[in-house]
Write a structure and sequence with these properties.
Distance between the termini of chain A: 36 Å
Strand content of chain B: under 5%
Helix content of chain A: over 70%
Order of helices and strands of chain A: HHHHHHH
Number of strands of chain B: 0
Oligomer: heterodimer
Order of helices and strands of chain B: H
Strand content of chain A: under 5%
Number of helices of chain B: 1
Structural class of chain A: mainly alpha
Radius of gyration of chain B: 19 Å
Largest interface: A-B, 40 and 26 residues
Structural class of chain B: mainly alpha
Number of helices of chain A: 7
Helix content of chain B: over 70%
Chain lengths: ~240, ~45
């Protein structure tokens, strides 16, 4: 991990990796979406509205996975003082927030034909809404830190905030078990198999992997932008000092 | 209730959000790296 601590070495890997992640992600998203929309059979109970699963689940995966990434970056920043960890945390925040909003929007759109309501203040939906507010708070804090410090928003406060906010992740995950929610229970598990038929499951695998690769490319692009901005600010400060 | 308008709306929001994010991330990285390189060459 420390081999990547040098931003120049990191950029040497990130630049060629970005288009590979991006285009393979886009191809898998399109294949999975087409499979989900036109090839997978309709659900016996929900009919065609279940097809929203192929974009709702990846969006939720990115929303919670994004915050997990920020929390890990926070630990790496605080414990090992890795110079790129804070940059990574800051790079994840905006796309993570957007996909939390998309999770809420696509879930709400799915809820209307399935449950008869756009919104219900149940455990799952409320905890994801809290995640969105946490993301917005992180972005405001990182921006304030970037204004005050010469470190691209690398303050310890943002790292601690990401760690404290991670408390919400198990609440989101177990909300459907702990409370009597309108949201359906867990139907996909890496450990105990899946309750979804394989004829319906394969497009979901494609969109989850595709969105993950695409998100990786976006985070790399954001990191490159933040590192370049930091270089510009440092050079301008040196020029101002003469 | 016809579910297809809901399905189309959900896919449109998600794919449009991904497209806008892609353009924003690519443009911000390209412009910041170009400015950093230009500043480096000026010195």
């Amino acid at each position: 991990m420390h081999a990547l601590a040098n931003p120049r070495r990191f950029l040497g890997i990130a630049r060629p990796l970005t288009p590979w992640l991006f285009w393979s992600g886009v191809a898998l998203i399109l294949l999975g979406s087409l499979g989900g929309l036109f090839i997978a059979p309709a659900d016996y109970l929900q009919g065609d509205s279940f097809r929203i699963i192929y974009i709702h689940v990846p969006a939720a995966w990115l929303a919670t996975g994004g915050w997990s990434g920020m929390a890990v970056a926070g630990i790496v920043q605080l414990v090992w003082r890795h110079p790129l960890a804070a940059v990574a945390g800051r790079a994840i925040a905006a796309p993570g927030a957007l996909f939390t909003a998309i999770t809420l929007a696509s879930g709400s759109i799915w809820g209307r034909p399935t449950w008869g309501t756009w919104w219900e203040w149940d455990g799952r939906m409320t905890s994801v809404l809290i995640l969105l507010f946490l993301y917005l708070g992180y972005m405001a804090l990182a921006r304030a830190s970037a204004d005050n410090e010469e470190s691209g928003g690398a303050s310890k406060v943002t790292a601690l905030y990401a760690l404290v906010g991670a408390i919400n992740l198990p609440i989101i995950h177990y909300s459907v078990t702990w409370w009597n929610t309108l949201h359906q229970g867990q139907s996909i598990s890496f450990m105990g198999g899946s309750k979804i038929a394989s004829s319906m499951l394969w497009p979901l695998g494609l969109t989850v992997i595709g969105f993950t690769a695409w998100f990786g490319a976006i985070v790399l692009l954001r990191m490159r932008a933040i590192l370049a901005e930091t270089r510009i600010e440092a050079r301008q400060r040196r020029m101002a000092r003469g | 209730m016809n579910p297809w308008p809901f399905v189309i709306a959900a896919y449109t929001i998600t794919l449009l959000g991904a497209a806008v994010t892609s353009i924003w991330a690519w443009r911000s990285a390209a412009s910041a790296e170009a400015r950093a390189d230009a500043l480096k060459e000026r010195n």
